[in-house]
Amino acid sequence: MRSKADFEHLLWQVLHEGIEAYKDSDGWYLLIHTRCSHLQKNGSCGIYDSRPAICREYENEWCEYDAPAEEGFMLHFRSYEELLKYCKKRFKTWGK
Ligand code: SF4
Q1: Rounded distance between C-alpha atoms, residue 79 and residue 68, angstroms
Q2: Atom 6 of ligand 1, residue of closest alpha carbon
Q3: 3-state helix, strand and coil shares in percent for the chain, rounded to the nearest 5
């Protein structure tokens, strides 16, 4: 993710409640602080047989109970304002 258009899109994403963005050694990701609508009260998946690929590929060798995820973050934006500040610094022509 490098272009101004990429960051404009990311800005729009972090405008939403419960959405944060971070970059670690693998790339850029969103943190989505909300429950999946298919998570059942007993902790199981309500669409297990047809769950999205990202759920199928997820490995739980490591999780945030092991160590705070933030320890591996190179960049972390909790709000539109934080990310906008970064964009203005990164792109000298931002907003012009
Ligand atoms: S496995 Fe995926 S679809 Fe199922 S509850 Fe978890 S996040 Fe939701």
Answers
A1: 19
A2: 45
A3: 35, 20, 45
User: What's the pLDDT at 73?
Assistant: 92
CA–CA gap between residue 43 and residue 73 (Å, rounded): 28
Q: Is the pLDDT score of 19 beyond 80?
A: yes
pLDDT of 64 over the 80 cut: no
Measured distance CA(56)–CA(51) in Å, rounded: 7
Q: Is 14 exposed, middle or buried (0-12, 13-18, 19+ CB in 10 A)?
A: buried
Is the pTM here over 0.85, yes or no? no
Q: What is the DSSP letter of 91?
A: -
| Per-residue pLDDT, 61 | 81
Distance (Å, rounded) from C-alpha 29 to C-alpha 22? 5
| Residues within 6 Å of ligand 1 by CB | 36, 38-39, 45, 47, 51, 55
